[in-house]
Here is the input.
Amino acid sequence: MHEPHHIVPRRRAEALRAVLHRALHAHGMRLPRRIAPSVWESAVGRQIAARAQPTVLAGGTLHVLVQDHRWRDQLDAARVFLLERINRVVGGVRELQFGLAHSGALSEGRRRAGIGAVAMPEALLEPRHVLGDARLEPALREALLRAAEAASRRRACVV
Here is the structure.
C-alpha cells in the first residue's frame, strides 16, 4: 500500500522556503520567481533596466513594468530579441507581459543606470533622440529603432 507524502525538513534547520518548494513541487505547483535587479540588468542592459523592471516570473510568463506606452511598444516589438537575452541569463521565460509602471516603480533601475530623479522627458518622434547614439548595444539599439520606426509608421497611418 502507498504511504501518504509527508513533507518534513530534510535536516533540522532547513529553510522554510526549501520545504515549501518541495511540498509545492510534489503537488505539481511552483512559486512565482522574482528576478534580482542586477540579474535583469545583465540580461537586458542598463538603459532598458532603467525603463522596465520585472515583477514576477510565473508559469513561464515574465511580467514587466514599463516606463510608458512608447517603451512598452518598443520592447514589445523587440520581444523575440529580449526573450533570447533574458533566457541566456534567467531561463524558463516563454512569454513577456508588459504593464505600465506606477510612479516610483522604476526608481532603483534609474538610479543604477545613473539617470537622475528628474522625470524622463516625453519620447520624441525621432527614435535617435530617445535612445542616443552609443547608449545601447548595437543589436539591441537596432531592434528598438526598427520597432520605433514601425510604431511611427502605424501612428501615421491611423492619423
